[in-house]
Amino acid sequence: MKILKAILTKVLPFVIILFIPFALMAAMSKSIPDQYGNTFLAGLKPKYERLYGTDSPKVIVVGGSNVAFGMDSELMEKQLGRPCINFGLYADLGTKAMLDLSEDAVGKGDVVIICPETDAQTYSLHFDARNMWQAVESDPSMITRLPSDDMMKVLAAFPDYYKAKKEFYKTGTTPNPEGVYRADSFNELGDLIYKRKYNAMLSFVDENKLVNLSPDLITDEFADYLNNYAKKAQKKGAKVYFSFPPINNESLTEDTTDETVYGFYKALVEKLDFEVISSIDDYILDKEYFFDTNYHLNETGAEYRTSLLSADILRAEGNTAINLDLSFPMAPIRPDDLFGFNVNDDRTGFFEFKEEEIGGRKVAILTGLTESGASEDLLTMPVSYNGLPVVAIEANAFSKSTVLERVFISDNSNITSFRDGAFDNCPTLRSVELTVPPTQIKASPNVFGETAENVMFYVTKELYSDYMTDYEWGSHFERITLM
User: Rounded CA gap, 213 and 215, in Å?
Assistant: First the structure.
C-alpha cells in the first residue's frame, strides 16, 4: 500500500498537469467544426481504428507514405492468409509517431514490418506536432498513445494549430484538396485507390529529393529506439522485421555504387537487434513504377511491391517453398503525349537555358537571365525552349538582376521543380506567384538560399488550402499567403 501511495504521489501530479490542459485544448478544438476532414492527414483515423479493431494474429506494416502508396492489403491478405494493416501515411508525422501509435495494438502472433523512407528525417526521432493535430482533429484521443515528451510538444503546438483552424473557418477556405492527397483517396483497408496509372513526374524523378544511401543515416539514437520497440513487441509474442521502401532507381545520388548500397545495408544490419528481411536491391525499382515522388508508387508499382514484401515475410516465417500466386507485373510504359505540353518556344529573350536528360527525357532548365531579362521587375516563367518543356529553375537563376521583385508561374507552366537556391542571390525579389496546383510543382527546402529571406509564395484563394495541406510543401507553410 505504501508503494502504491508513493507511486501515485509522484505520478498523479504529472497526469493532472498533462491531461487537464490536453482535455481543455481538445474541447477548444471541437468548438470549431472540423476543417481538415477532407485532407490526406485525415486518413489516419480509419487506419488507426482498423489497427486497433483487428484481432491478432495480423501483419502490421508501419512507415510513411511509401506504405500508403505502396501496399495492396487485400492482395497481401490473400498471399499471407491473415489480416494485413496498412499503417503508413505521411513521413512528416515521423516514423516514431507511427510506431508509438501502433505499439499498444501489437499482440501475440503479430508480425510488424518497419519500413521508413530512407532519408535523414524518417531515420530519426523527428515528430511534427502541427501535422499531428491536423491528423487527430476528428479524434484527439489518439494523442494519448504518444509518450509524454511528444504529448508536451503537441500541447505546445496547439495555439498555431487552433489559429490556422479558426482562420480556415472564418474565411471559408476549408481545405479541400484536389488529386490524390485527400481522405477519400483511401479505401476501408487504408490503401490508396486513387487512379494513378503512370509516373506523373514530367522527368520521371523528383530531383529535389534524391536518395543518398549513406550509413550516416543510421544513427545510434534511431537504432536504439527501433530495437526498444522490437523488444517490447517480442515480449508480447510478436515478431518485428525491417524492410525497405520502394526507391526510384533514377533518384539515387550520382555517387551511389553497388559498394555504397551494400555498405548502407550492412550498417543497418549491424545496428538492429532484429532481422532485416529484405534485400535493398530488390526495392530499387524502375522509374515507371512510381507516381509523383521517388517513394510513391503507381497502381502497378503497389502491386509489385506488395508481392515483394509478402515473399520476404513468407521466407522470414520459414516458408522456403513459396508457391503462392505472387504478382510481379511489368512496369507501365507512359505515353509520350501524356502531358501534352505547349511546344511554342520562349521568344521573350529574357532567359538563358541548358538542356538536360532527366529520367530518359530531354528537357530544358532555366539557368539565368539575359541582359534584357535582368532589367525586368516582373518575369513570367517560360513554357518551353527549342520545343523542350522548361521543367526546372536552376540555382542562382535570377542573380544577375538587381530590380526583380516578382516571379510569376502561370497555369500552363511545365515547371515541376524549384531547385536548391533557385531564388538565392536575388535580394530584391519579394514574391513568387503561383496559379498552378501544388501537386504539379515541388520546391526544394533550400530554394531561397541565404539572401532571399523575405520572399513569399502567393497563391490564389482557390489553391490556398491545397498548398497549406500539401504533402510536399510542408517546409514552406510559413511563406504561403493569398494573392
Answer: 7
**What secondary structure letter does DSSP report for 367?**
E
Res 470: pLDDT: 82
Count of residues in the chain = 483
Strand spans (E) along 370-475: 378-380, 384-385, 388-393, 406-409, 417-418, 431-434, 442-443, 456-459
For residues 260-273, average pLDDT: 96
Closest CA to 391 of 180, 208, 197: 208
Mean pLDDT of the 242-254 span: 96
Q: Is the dihedral of CA 193, 196, 199, 205 positive or negative?
A: negative
pLDDT digits (tens, 9 = 90+) for 102-129: 999 999 999 999 999 999 999 999 999 9
How far is CA 469 from each of CA 40, 43, 69, 142, 147, rounded to the nearest angstrom?
8, 13, 18, 20, 26
Cis peptide before 332 (omega within 30 of 0): no
Cα dihedral 305/306/310/311 (nearest 10): -40
Q: What is the pLDDT of residue 445?
A: 82
Contact by Cβ (8 Å): 243, 113: yes
Q: What is the pLDDT of residue 467?
A: 85
d(C-alpha 264, C-alpha 215), whole Å? 5
User: Under a CB-based contact definition with an 8 Å cutoff, are residues 92 and 128 in contact?
Assistant: yes
For residue 338, what pLDDT is reported? 66
Mean pLDDT of the residues in the chain: 88
The three grid cell numbers given for residue 231, joined into one nine-digit string: 523488444
Lowest mean pLDDT among 11-15, 77-81, 451-455: 11-15
Q: Say if residues 457 and 478 touch (Cβ distance below 8 Å).
A: no
- CA dist list (Å): 335 to 140, 194, 199, 200, 288: 45, 19, 10, 11, 11
Contacts of 143 by beta carbon, 8 Å cutoff, 6+ apart: 22, 132, 136, 151, 154
**Residue 359 or residue 205, greater confidence:** 205
For 347, residues 6+ apart whose C-beta sits below 8 A from its C-beta are none
Specify whether the CB–CB gap between 369 and 352 falls below 8 A.
Answer: yes
pLDDT at 368 (0 to 100) = 94
Q: Residue 28, Cβ neighbours under 10 Å: how many?
A: 13
